[in-house]
């Protein structure tokens, strides 16, 4: 009963809370799950049985290597966060495997029910709020599309085998929502996986195809109807929604979607060549990206291809282990297919195929709600027959492992949230108490670069008020620890450079300013900081070359920023040209200065808010 309740909580809460992305829900559930395991093992001294060459067996090897990557990770905090997610998926897989058939059916009903409600919420969001790509409780439509397509295939397959009309209804809802999500990748994965629904049809092939066509056609008709009535419902008949255009979005198909992904993949592969065997560490693609950055407008937190992302993060060894896990999943499905299997087998198999297809072109693996659903589906088709298990983990070993993991998750969760106490002290002006909080957290859990920065900033603030160099040295020491924990974070390097500069340590300042620019991608403010340093050191040619490099990136930064933040990119661009203008004027290069003035005037005329930012008469 406890296992069942835990899976109920996981299958419902993770999708509801922002798909489990960048929040504490996975950690909370992991604490509950590991805590329950520790209690159960200590009380009943149960052994853990694992079948050799099963998906769980290979997954444990993958997790073990991912955990080892902490020691060479370029962003240890993120490695820990994503390791906890992997452990959570493994826990869901293990518990699902150990359910009885009746219990598995119960999880199917609860997952379908809540999935249907989440999909309906997205549909209502489209009709009554705004006719755009729906996200429901997710914050990105592409992983939401994957989640919906997986549940559509699963419920469709289940309906074809037991003719339960409730699952037919849910499958229609899932397909309508997936169409409104506008995820082209999810629909491609759907068409790849849909034929597998009929593998088990045999004598009922015609009936199954006709039922499937009915569900598909019904879903498309209802979707088209929703698109038609939405302007009427929202009392805005000026809305012009083209259903196919909204789905295909041909303007972005080549220009942003396809080319962007190609650039993400190239950057990942370029970074991979720097560390081909072990990679940069689990969860560090966003940081390793700066190593493979292609001097263009493209930057992404994820590779939009999890196989390339795994190659970048965990190297060849990690990718091989990941592929072995996937092969073991498909092998287990093949074995099940060849023998008598449950009514939920075909739908879950199709959903699993869709997932592994979609992560070729998307980042759905990184959304816990989607990947958790995958591991639950895998577990549905595996048994807990102890007679087949040829690996036994003794209670003593499982006690140690589960206890260590539980302590780690507790420490991480408590320390991560405890920074808020320091923030409150700072807001009240009590920097001394804030410093004590930050220092205590960083002593207990010394892996958070931002935490080191919080503590550093208190010392620097104290230095600015007292001019006590010992305070500045302590601030520098902590800022250096931050860069050691995140060596490819250009922002941290530029911050450290400014501290070295305040101290008069120009050699170290130069190194950090240059690293800040190297790991800046298209964020040209760091080019400006480096150029100002060069100017102060009398290195005019270096300053000019750095600023010219910034001018080649300025449009990329403006393009990449969301609309509310575009003014930041525009001001950085204008500052670059103003600094170039002043430098050219100072050294008598009036022709070049005139060209910079023309660019400044063009920006001034294009962006209204610059009228309060610069005195344009100075450049005429």
Automatic annotation (TrEMBL):
Entry keywords, A to Z: Membrane, Transmembrane, Transmembrane helix
Domain O-antigen ligase-related, chain residue ranges per copy: 170-323
InterPro entries according to UniProt: O-antigen_ligase-rel_domated, TPR-like_helical_dom_sf, WaaL-like
Residues spanning the membrane: 28-44, 56-74, 80-99, 111-129, 144-160, 172-197, 209-229, 276-294, 314-337, 344-361, 367-384, 396-414
Lineage: superkingdom: Bacteria
Cellular localization per UniProt: Membrane
GO CC annotations on file: membrane
Cited SUPFAM superfamilies: TPR-like
Topology in membrane: Multi-pass membrane protein
UniProt protein name: O-antigen ligase-related domain-containing protein
């Amino acid at each position: 009963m406890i296992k069942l309740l835990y899976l109920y909580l996981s299958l419902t809460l993770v999708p509801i809370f922002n798909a489990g992305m960048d929040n504490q829900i996975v950690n909370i559930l992991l604490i509950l799950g590991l805590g329950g395991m520790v209690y159960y093992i200590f009380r009943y001294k149960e052994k853990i049985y694992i079948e050799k060459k099963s998906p769980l067996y290979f997954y444990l090897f993958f997790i073990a290597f991912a955990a080892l990557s902490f020691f060479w990770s370029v962003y240890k905090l993120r490695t820990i966060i994503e390791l906890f997610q992997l452990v959570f998926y493994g826990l869901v897989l293990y518990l699902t495997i150990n359910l009885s058939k009746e219990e598995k059916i119960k999880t199917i009903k609860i997952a379908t029910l809540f999935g249907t409600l989440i999909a309906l919420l997205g549909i209502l969001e489209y009709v009554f709020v705004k006719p755009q790509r729906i996200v429901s409780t997710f914050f990105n439509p592409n992983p939401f599309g994957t989640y919906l397509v997986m549940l559509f295939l699963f419920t469709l397959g289940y309906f074809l085998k037991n003719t339960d009309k409730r699952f037919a209804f849910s499958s229609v809802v899932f397909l309508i929502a997936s169409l409104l999500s506008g995820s082209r990748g999810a629909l491609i994965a759907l068409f790849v996986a849909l034929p597998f629904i009929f593998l088990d049809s045999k004598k009922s092939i015609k009936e199954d195809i006709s039922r499937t066509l009915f569900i598909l056609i019904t879903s498309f008709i209802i979707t088209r109807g929703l698109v038609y009535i939405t302007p009427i419902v929202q009392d805005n008949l000026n809305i012009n929604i083209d259903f196919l255009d909204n789905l295909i979005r041909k303007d972005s198909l080549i220009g942003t979607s396809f080319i962007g992904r190609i650039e993400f993949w190239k950057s990942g592969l370029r970074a991979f060549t720097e560390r081909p065997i072990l990679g940069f560490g689990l969860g560090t693609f966003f940081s390793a990206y700066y190593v493979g950055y292609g001097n263009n407008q493209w930057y992404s937190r994820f590779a939009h291809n999890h196989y390339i992302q795994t190659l970048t993060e965990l190297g060849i060894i990690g990718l091989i282990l990941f592929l072995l896990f996937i092969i073991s999943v498909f092998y287990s499905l093949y074995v099940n297919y060849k023998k008598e299997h449950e009514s939920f087998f075909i739908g879950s198999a199709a959903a699993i195929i869709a997932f592994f297809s979609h992560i070729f072109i998307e980042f759905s693996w990184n959304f816990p709600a989607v990947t958790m659903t995958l591991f639950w589906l895998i577990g549905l088709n595996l048994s807990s027959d102890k007679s087949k298990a040829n690996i036994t983990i003794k209670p003593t070993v499982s006690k140690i492992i589960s206890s260590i993991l539980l302590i780690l998750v507790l420490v991480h969760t408590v320390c991560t949230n405890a920074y808020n106490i320091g923030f409150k002290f700072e807001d009240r002006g009590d920097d001394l108490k804030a410093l004590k909080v930050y220092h205590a957290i960083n002593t207990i859990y010394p892996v958070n670069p931002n935490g080191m920065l919080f503590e550093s900033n208190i010392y620097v603030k104290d230095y600015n008020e007292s001019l006590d160099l010992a305070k500045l040295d302590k601030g520098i020491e902590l800022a250096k620890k931050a860069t050691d924990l995140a060596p490819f974070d250009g922002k941290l390097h530029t911050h450290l450079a400014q501290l070295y500069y305040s101290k008069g340590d120009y050699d170290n300042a130069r190194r950090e300013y240059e690293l800040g620019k190297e790991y800046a991608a298209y964020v040209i403010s760091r080019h400006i900081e480096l150029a100002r340093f060069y100017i102060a050191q009398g290195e005019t040619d270096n300053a000019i070359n750095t600023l010219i490099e910034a001018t080649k990136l300025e449009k990329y930064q403006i393009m990449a920023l969301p609309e509310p933040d575009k003014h930041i990119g525009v001001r950085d661009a204008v500052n670059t040209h103003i600094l170039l203008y002043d430098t050219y004027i100072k050294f008598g290069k009036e022709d070049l200065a005139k060209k910079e003035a023309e660019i400044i005037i063009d920006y001034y005329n294009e962006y209204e808010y610059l009228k309060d930012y610069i005195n344009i008469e100075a450049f005429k």
